[in-house]
Amino acid sequence: TFLIGGDQCTRRCDFCQIDTGKPAALDLDEPRRVAESVRQMGLKYSTVTGVARDDLPDGGAWLYAETVRQIHALNPGTGVEVLIPDFNANPDQLAEVFSSRPEVLAHNLETVPRVFKRIRPAFRYERSLEVLTRAQADGLVTKSNLILGMGETFEEAVQALRDLHEAGCDLITITQYLRPSPRHHPVERWVKPEEFVELSQAAEEIGFLGVMSGPLVRSSYRAGRLWGQAMRRKGREIPAALAHLAEPTTARQEASALLASRPST
Fold first, then answer.
1. Fewer Cβ atoms within 10 A, N terminus or C terminus of the chain?
2. d(CA 130, CA 140)
């Protein structure tokens, strides 16, 4: 995963290790360098994320879009998944990113309404859902993430999954919160693998096209595989260079794999 936009974010989420502060000037050459790194690494599927840049007139939309465009231009056949901030749901800024046609447009909801404002004070629950709705309406495969262990209940997590699906989210990852430092939000609970399996089953029943759920899962894990699964279930053609991503597999980070590896008693 490539992090763009610098190492200072203009927002602060209580689970995130990235520092909040005044970002450096925009590096206009960063998209080209990221694309060149993708080429040198021989990646067939790349994931790009970045910081919020509310200091910029376009919120950083050009940077995200241009990075996707440069990767595609320099690496024909390589898939790109871009994880974006909400751009305050600004239609023009979102349209700029959507126009770059990433294979997956991801925006992470992260938590449930009851604790959302405390965990993500600069974001809004409904606004995050709106980003996904707009992305799906533009024909993009959409993805989000839920982090468990920050104060939510099982029932609230299921409702958040319903909200995401109704908003137009195709793919979901469900993860365990790990506290970056003592100044961050404390871990409210360590979620058992069995609950991750239950939530995975609930997400599949709700209608998500791809689910990855487990305490060791992160939103970028097996990203290409989830995209391939969504494409297959949507009946869309998968480019030959990415055909291997259509093969269904289970990641060892998933809770179901962890439970299967336990010795029988």
1. C
2. 14
Alpha-carbon distance 130 to 164, whole Å? 10
| pTM for this prediction | 0.92
| Spatial distance between the Cα atoms of 92 and 38, rounded to a whole number of angstroms | 28
E-strand stretches of 72-217: 79-83, 104-106, 141-148, 171-176, 210-213
Dist CA 209 CA 234 (whole Å): 8
Domains parsed from the chain with CATH numbers: 2-260 (3.20.20.70)
Per-residue pLDDT tens over the stretch 172-216: 999 999 987 888 888 999 999 999 999 999 999 999 999 999 999
- Distances, alpha carbon 231 to alpha carbons 128, 152, 216, in Å: 23, 31, 25
Longest CA span, the chain: 60
Q: Which residue has the higher pLDDT, 20 or 255?
A: 20
State how far the Cα of 251 lies from the Cα of 224, in Å rounded to an integer.
Answer: 12
